[in-house]
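Listing S7. Sequence submitted for prediction.
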Amino acid sequence: MTAPDAAYRTLLYEAADRVATITLNRPDHYNAISLGMPSEIRAAVERAEADPDVHVIVVRGAGPGFCGGYDLKRYAEQRGPGSGSQDMPWDPTLDFAGMWKNTQDFMSLWRASKPTIARVHGAAVAGGSDVALCCDFLIMADDARIGYPPARVWGVPTPAMWVYRLGPQMAKRLMMTGDLIFGDEAARIGLALEAVPAAELDAAVERLVGRLKGVPRNQLMMTKLVVNQAYENMGLASTQTLATLFDGIARHTPEGLWFRERSQEVGFKQAVAERDSGDPIAPHVSKRR
């Protein structure tokens, strides 16, 4: 058994009984995705991949939730150029380079030869849903929430896993509305494998882990690659390229610039309330177009 590794700044890694557990560990910030977290997730996955004793990888969050996504409040309210927004004119290749790296870091969970399970409690929101949906399986608390609210303004989910998991109609519903759904609905529509009361979440994860960890690693690898290759043949990489490019564009459209300006003026919480109110966004922008 390995003890949690102090070498990581944003997560904990532990391996025991053929299972590697990656715990996102910024509980005071709802495990928000900091600059170093995507690369640390990938490093932890690669560590589990290299360990012949590990058959299954579980990803979970410390504290009250799985992952609250990127710290959009800080990115939106800060003045001047930053990693979320550039001064105009902007260089789309800079956005693409940064977010493409993060996307591929998250996708290490999908491309690992070993099965990956997201144990979701609290919320997996925005970038947090990206992490969860890059895993092979989601086991959710029935009162946990998942969704991508920035798809209303200021973002596009770069791994683009919604359509591959749900099909076009439900993917459009969730991506166009930015709605958050509870675990029980996620299970009903096939986004989550199972949703259970929060008190039973660990037991549900353990049931699946128990069925997987006794399978030889070569069998797990072969069956996973067969399924994943079907999605690669459907154009997963091309979809992610477009989504990652659009994510940068979304932060620099007239409406995206309005959202950031509004966040600086009245605060992120109020800007989000206006975004989600159902009223036209940035009416002064609409009149010019």
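Caption to Listing S7: primary sequence and predicted structure tokens for the chain studied. Residues 92-111 form the longest helix (20 residues). The two ends are 61 Å apart (CA to CA).
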